[in-house]
Write the structure tokens for this entry.
Amino acid sequence: MRDNPTIVHIGGAKDGQDYAKRAAQSAAQDAAMATPEKALIAKQVQVAAETRLMRGIHPVAIPTPSEMATAKARVQYRDGLFHFAVTGISGSGKSSLINAFRGLRNSEAGACPTGTVETTTDICRHPDPNPKLPFVWYDVPGAGTLTQSDWLYFNSQGLFVFDCIIVLFDNRFTSVDISILTNCRRFQIPTYIVRSKADVHVRNIMLDMGHDSDCDDDDRRRSLYDLALERHVSETRETVKKNLKDAGLPDQRVYVVSHKTLVSTVRDRVLSPKTIHEVELIRDLLEEACARRCVPAS
């Protein structure tokens, strides 16, 4: 069976122009070996594809069974396990979130490497350390970098094989996130939108409100914290809702979390006073995995 030509071109393309060039070369080769009628059809398909790219409409690639098998082998996909992929642009905190889900702090042995620049160049597979949880967590290279443009990201990383995808963002909800969510809908992959680094964002809002750690008493600090948290969650929800609507996607829940709070919840079973949506996120992920993998007892 011949490989899907769109996947082939996408896999090596640097950008839209490079994709169009590769597609044109392939079409020319096919036309050279085809009858005049088929050559005309190939040319028409090529022109249509190039026109769509110029308008910003990127190709939809459906992997063949052989490509699906190759992608599963690359990530060591195993039946009976539930495979979570954490995606997002470089610097959004993917590695820290995975460490927290696995009950590990960033500095501990076995934790995913973290940093202010993209530290992941290949998909990293991390089985859950809890033997009772048949989960595998995947740290996916950040999109939007020099090596991972947004429209190539989903197919080049083989995201179509995962059971669930967590779309993580920090400061801005971007076209990269929209692209991932759009493709997940095509492949019917459940998604969870998560905003990271809540502790940092809330503190910055408190500072904008006039918080002074040297002068404010506990009552004022708590009052400012509550106001800042409410503002942060509200603005996050509205931003995501607008972006989803503009992209023609249905509204969905956004989880606002801090990886520091999340790791305490998972590891120490302690509910911090600063817990936001960490517990709800863990609960919903567990329910998703159980619904799709657990078999009721007969």
Q: What stands out?
A: The radius of gyration is 22 Å. The beta strands are 82-87, 124-127, 135-139, 164-169, 191-195, 254-256. The first strand starts at residue 82 and ends at 87.
